[in-house]
Design brief:
This protein is mostly beta strands and 364 residues long. Strands 1-28-27-26 form a 4-stranded antiparallel sheet, with no helix packed on it. Strands 2-3-4-5 form a 4-stranded antiparallel sheet, with no helix packed on it. The longest helix is centred in the N-terminal third of the chain and has 23 residues. It starts with a helix and ends with a strand.
Length: 364
């Protein structure tokens, strides 16, 4: 309005000079707006994640899930037949839990001073002491227990068995089986809302199942279409949103009360884990095949969009988030060629090279 009055309120001989001056002012203000849009104050509002370091672990073999114990400042990393334990503050290995078969996940029960490991090769859940890492008990599970969580609401451990397509539920205080839940499909990663519900991705049905943590009843089957073959799952407790990462390079954002898919933002190729930072209000997808980390933010009410794609490393498909420092840890290694496909393994992964296993550190 000010520029308009300068440009058009004069009709005298000096009109052309004023018009020229107004045009220059307009151009200058336009330039300033464009500059501010790219200025540090605006850039600071973007996530700005980057790879800031790595932790060398070494050894041989593959890996699966990572789990952070933020209270005790420890990171637990599955590594074939053992769990690698990393001190989060010194960022150095401080111990191992060994003598297992094929580990998938680790669940931490800080209030009980114990943890639980899903040993898929031995079809068992392994209880260990958080203080000295000593194995205390081995509990029978279904076939190939994979995703695992401790639900503090019910004081139970839920281990999801990939081949028998069910869940083994353990009383965490007694370390005894409390029940088995038939799922009717291949489960992947679970999360809890800590209010009585447990959610788990069903990979071959492309759905999320909602479980009652107390009664162990299946309460809902929620289709994730157009998302296909979900694996990693994360949860926003404040907004009641589930974040499920899928093989067709998209994330399904799901209302945890209605089961409705509210958004499907694009992610990278080969995701296997998801995370959500409640302080930063961003969700993450670690994409092993594209070697990227996708950062998703709610841009407007009900709209979720990728705001950053960070190049990480080939094979960095699983991760864990330390909510205290907001750092993300991703497991990877150097790789040799993949073995020949077989009937039992139609899509073999490239072989990790001995001594190269490490954790990438991503920070804001």
């Amino acid at each position: 309005m000010i520029l308009s009055s300068i440009a058009f309120s004069k009709s005298s001989a000096g009109e052309s000079k004023l018009d020229t001056r107004a045009m220059r002012i307009s151009a200058f203000l336009f330039f300033c707006c464009a500059f501010l849009a790219r200025s540090p104050s605006v850039v600071a509002q973007s996530p700005g994640y980057k790879v800031t370091g790595s932790i060398q672990v070494g050894g041989t073999g593959g890996w699966d899930y990572l789990s952070v114990d933020a209270a005790a400042r420890r990171l637990y990393v599955s590594h074939t037949s053992k769990v690698e334990v990393i001190d989060l503050d010194s960022q150095k290995p401080v111990g191992q839990i060994s003598g297992l078969t094929r580990i998938h996940g680790i669940a931490i029960a800080d209030d009980l001073d114990r943890g639980f490991i899903s040993d898929g090769g031995a079809n068992q859940i392994v209880e260990f002491n958080l203080k000295d890492l000593a194995v205390q008990k081995k509990i029978p599970a279904g076939t190939n227990p994979d995703g695992i969580l401790y639900d503090s609401f019910s004081k139970r451990v839920f281990a999801f068995n990939g081949r028998s397509q069910d869940a083994t539920v353990v009383d965490a205080a007694l370390a005894t089986v409390a029940g088995t839940i038939k799922l009717g499909g291949k489960p992947e990663f679970p999360v809890s809302d800590e209010r009585g519900s447990v959610f788990v991705n069903i990979e071959d049905k492309s759905e999320i199942i909602k479980l009652n943590a107390k009664t162990l009843a299946v309460e809902a089957h929620w289709p994730l279409a157009p998302c296909d073959a979900p694996s990693g799952l994360a949860f926003d407790k404040a907004d009641r949103r589930l974040f499920s990462v899928c093989d067709n390079k998209m994330m399904a954002v799901v209302d945890a009360d209605s089961g409705k898919v509210v958004a499907t933002p694009a992610i990278g190729e080969g995701p296997d884990a998801a995370a959500f930072d409640p302080a930063a209000k961003v969700a993450f997808s670690s994409n092993g095949e594209s070697g990227t980390l996708t950062v998703i933010r709610q841009t407007t009410k009900g709209t979720y969009s990728p705001v950053q794609t960070l190049q990480t490393a080939e094979g960095a498909r699983t991760m864990a988030l330390d909510e205290r420092t907001h750092k993300i840890y991703l497991a990877t290694a150097d790789f040799g060629p993949a073995p020949e496909a077989t009937a039992a393994n139609a899509h073999p992964r490239p072989v990790p090279q001995p001594g190269t296993f490490r954790l990438l550190i991503v920070s804001r």
